[in-house]
Write a structure and sequence with these properties.
Helix content: 40-55%
Order of helices and strands: HEEHHHHHHHEEEHEHHEHHHHHH
Strand content: 5-15%
Radius of gyration: 31 Å
Oligomer: single chain
Number of strands: 7
Shape: flat
Largest sheet: 5 strands, mixed
Structural class: alpha/beta
Distance between the termini: 80 Å
Number of helices: 17
Length: 367
């Protein structure tokens, strides 16, 4: 009806008043959640709508809307007030959650997913487009929404950890693609019934790889998450010198701060290093590992060689072709490299033969 069209709108949660939700009239008496404002109306009757028109909150909102439109409220005119319907916001959060849950790049695909939703009939996403500059699809908005989602998901997990009987940290220092050192923190906790749970805790960027920086980062995360350090009993590390150093290692410094702490080096890392040291005594194994690594570097360090390998794989009908790297600190890395090479050996041999015959590459001929 025309008399209701300017302020009444319908969502899956009921009918709402756009003007009242914009100006938020104060609550003088009655319930805290008012119809058409905080709570949607699911009774679709004309007398309910007309009753809201004559109510005091609606008259208050209409008065302020007229004042704002007439230019009497100078302060309100200059404030960057943005009114977005909650359905559009909820839909935006759902789209972002789906992207993150499926490990899809959210910065680049979030606007595309909203456009697809609009194309499929979700017209309320138009409410997110205030003007050309403010469309609530920027990287900053996406990051803020992601932080809100993370807090909501993380809150019950942290409460569960705080109420646990014992806590253990798992610390791993990594280097990402931008050559930044990062500290990967996981927490393992024991509930009252004796069940053990593992959760990701945080990913912290480090200025350097020194033990003091790692310890400071760990203590900062413990303080920020408000975890009970009096129940911190375990520390798991990768066995590197910076972690297990006897004089000034991370485990030594944390043990000085938390006397109940017991440090344990990762068994998988230790086994991988032990196998590597043992294989060094066998010349055949050492040469074999070196050949695997040289093969990986041969293709990785040249775009032309990688293209040749890809063309050979396409011709032979192979996919997922990649010569994997062998790292001594990564368990099973040699097994995965051998397994991948065995599966794609025809394509690798064809690419090496092409490099040796066409480009006269001595390295390819030697491999």
């Amino acid at each position: 009806m025309p008399q209701f069209k300017n302020w009444l709108y319908l969502t899956q949660h009921g009918m709402f008043c756009r003007i009242c939700r914009q100006h938020k009239p104060p609550i003088k008496k009655g319930p805290l959640k008012r119809a058409f404002i905080e709570v949607g109306i699911l009774v679709f009757r004309k007398d309910y709508i007309e009753r809201h028109i004559s109510s005091e909150p609606h008259q208050y909102s209409v008065k302020h809307q007229v004042s704002l439109a007439s230019g009497y409220s100078v302060m309100q005119a200059f404030e960057p007030t943005v009114i977005m319907e909650h359905e559009a916001i909820i839909g935006g959060f759902k789209c972002l959650y789906w992207l993150v849950k499926n490990e899809i790049a959210h910065h680049t695909n979030y606007p595309k997913l909203l456009s697809l939703a609009q194309l499929l009939g979700c017209d309320y996403f138009e409410k997110l487009k205030v003007d050309q500059r403010n469309n609530y699809q920027s990287h900053r908005i996406v990051d803020e929404m992601l932080e809100i989602l993370a807090e909501i998901v993380e809150s019950p997990i942290l409460e569960e950890i705080r109420s646990s009987q014992a806590i253990s940290l798992e610390v791993d220092e990594t280097t990402d693609v931008s050559v930044n050192r990062q500290l990967d923190l996981h927490v393992r906790h024991l509930d009252k019934e004796g069940y053990v749970f593992n959760h990701f805790l945080d990913l912290v960027t480090l200025e350097d790889g020194k033990a003091d920086s790692v310890v400071a980062a760990i203590k900062s995360v413990l303080q920020k998450k408000d975890l009970p350090v009096d129940r911190l009993y375990g520390l798991g590390t990768d066995g590197a010198a910076v972690m297990t150093g006897r004089l000034n290692g991370v485990a030594k410094q944390l043990t000085d701060s938390f006397p109940k702490l017991v440090s344990v080096a990762c068994a998988a890392h230790r086994l991988a290093l032990a196998c590597k040291d043992a294989s060094n005594a066998v010349r055949y194994m050492a040469n074999f590992r070196n050949h695997l690594q040289e093969l990986h570097l041969f293709f990785r360090n040249s775009a032309n060689r990688s293209a040749t390998l890809s063309a050979a794989a396409t011709t032979l009908g192979l996919n997922d072709l990649k010569v994997k790297e062998v790292k001594d600190t990564r368990w099973l890395s040699q097994h995965l490299a051998v397994q991948n090479l065995q599966r794609n050996l025809p394509a690798v041999l064809a690419a090496l033969a092409e490099e040796a015959s066409t480009r006269k590459c001595p390295v390819a001929k030697g491999l």
